[in-house]
Amino acid sequence: MIYVDSEINPLRKVIIHRPEQGIERISPQDSEKLLFDDIVYLPQMQREHEVFADVMRQFTTDDGVIEVEQLLVETFDATDEGKEEILQLILQFEELPASWIEKLRPLSHRELVRTLLSGYLATEDRYLFSPIPNFVFTRDIAVVVKDHVFITKASRAVRQRENLLTRFFFRYHPSFQDMIREDHMVNFNNIEKYPPSRTGQPVALEGGDIMILYEDYLIVGISERTNLHGFETLKREVFDRQLVEYVVKVAIPPQRSYMHFDTTLTQIDEKRFVGYKPIVIEGLGSNIVVYGKKGTQRNYGSFKEFLHGEIDPQIEILRVGRGISPFQEREQWTDAANVFALAPGVILAYDRNPHTLQLFEENGFQLLGAEQFLQRTAMGELNPASLRNTVISLPSSELSRARGGPHCMTLPLWRTSKSNHCT
User: Fold this and answer.
1) If DSSP codes are grouped into helix, strand and coil, which group holds residue 275?
2) Quick one: which of 250, 249, 214, 254 has its CA closest to 232?
3) Which of 153, 274, 376, 381 has the CA that lies 20 to 30 A from 283?
4) Would you give the distance in Å from CA 387 to the centre of its chain?
C-alpha cells in the first residue's frame, strides 16, 4: 500500500536509512562540501538512530519500517538489467573507468550496496568515491502525494548518487511494480522529460520542502534547495494528475539555517503546528501564493495568515524556543521545528531542545523519553495505539549535528486516511 494525504495520520510504512560507515569519512575540511555542519561520532549516532527506528516500529505494520540498505539488496536480487544500469550510471557520474564495473559486479549484493553507499570497496581496501552521508535524510529523496510517488532531484551534485539509487529501487523493486504499470511514479531525474527551463535553470526539488496538508493543499517551499523551476514542474504534474485542489508556493530565505521549509514548520495535530516565529508567524523573507487547479491565485504575507485564511482561524502555531531569542535561533538550528507525527498529537522530537519541549508540556502534551517509552511498551505498561498528546523525545547529541530532525529522517509511504481510498 502506498498512500499519503496528510502529515499527521497514523503511520503505517516508512523508509529510513541507518547511518553507515561513510559518515566516518567526513573530515572538518570536507564537511561543508558534503552538506554536514559538523563531524559526528558514528557509533553513538547509530545507537540514537536505532532508538528512533525502534520507536517507529511500535506504530507501524510488522514490516513497516523499511531500511534503505535492505531495500537496495532486495532490488539487486530482483533484477540483472537494473544492476547493470545502475552500476554504469554511477561509474559514469563518478567519472571512473567503465572497466571498474568488473570490480563491482562479482560482489555479493550486500557488499555491493555497502560499497555504493559508503564509497569503500572492502575487497581492495580502497575508496572508490565519496560517501553520501545525507542519505540518512530520506525525506528528501522522494515524496508520496496520495497514491503517487514523485522521485525528487537534489540541487547539489554531492547528493546525485542518492538520486540514482532511489530511482533504482523505485523502478526495479518488486513492491513498486504496480505503481509503474499504473503510471503513478514520476521521476524528476529524467532530464529528457524534465529538462532545464528556458533560462537554463535545472529542476531542483527536495522532499523537505514538500508537505501535504488537509488532503488538498500541497505545500512547496522555495528555499536553498528547491528552486522555482522545480516548483513549476511539480505543480504542473500534480495538477495534470488531479491529485490536489491547491498547490501553495512558500518562499523562504535561501539560507543554510532554513535549508528546507520543514526546518521552520511541521504539523503535529489537526489544529496545531510547531514553527519558527520569524519566518512562519512574522513572515520574514516569506511570500505565500496559493494556486488553484482552475487558475485561481491568492497571496498571503506569512504562513500563519495562510493557515488562518485558508483552513481554520483556530489553528495554533507553537513557537520554537518559546519564540524568544536566542533560544528560538538555537533550537531552530537543532531542528525543534522538524518534528514527526506518528499519529495526530503523537510526535517524535529531539531531546536537546528543552525550551520547545517545555512549551509542549505547557500546552497539554506529556513528555516521554524514547528509552522510557520502549521499556514501558515492552513491559505491557503502554499501548502505543492509545497514546494521545504525547511527545516522545529522542536522544540526539549526534543526530542533531547532521542538521536534520525526525521529519528529515523519514519518507512515509503509507499513512491511514479518512478518505475512502484507504482504510
Assistant:
1) strand
2) 249
3) 153
4) 24
- State the DSSP string of 329-347: HHHHHTTTT--EEEETTEE
Between helix 68-78 and helix 160-172 the angle, nearest 10°, is: 50
Amino acid present at 59: F
3-state class (DSSP) for residue 297: strand
pLDDT digits 0-9 by tens, 124-142 = 888 898 889 899 999 999 9
Gap between the Cα atoms of 386 and 272, Å rounded: 20
Amino acid found at 181: R
Give all strands of the β-sheet with 390-394 in edge-to-edge order.
340-343, 346-350, 390-394, 366-369
SS3 of residue 58 by DSSP: coil
- Lookup result for grid cell 530565505: 253
The Cα–Cα gap between 394 and 351 comes to 5
Spans of all domains in the chain? 11-415
Fold of domain 11-415: L-arginine/glycine Amidinotransferase; Chain A (3.75.10)
Asked if the model's pLDDT at residue 122 lies above 70, the reply is yes
Supply the DSSP symbol for 314: T
**Rounded distance between C-alpha atoms, residue 334 and residue 22, angstroms:** 22
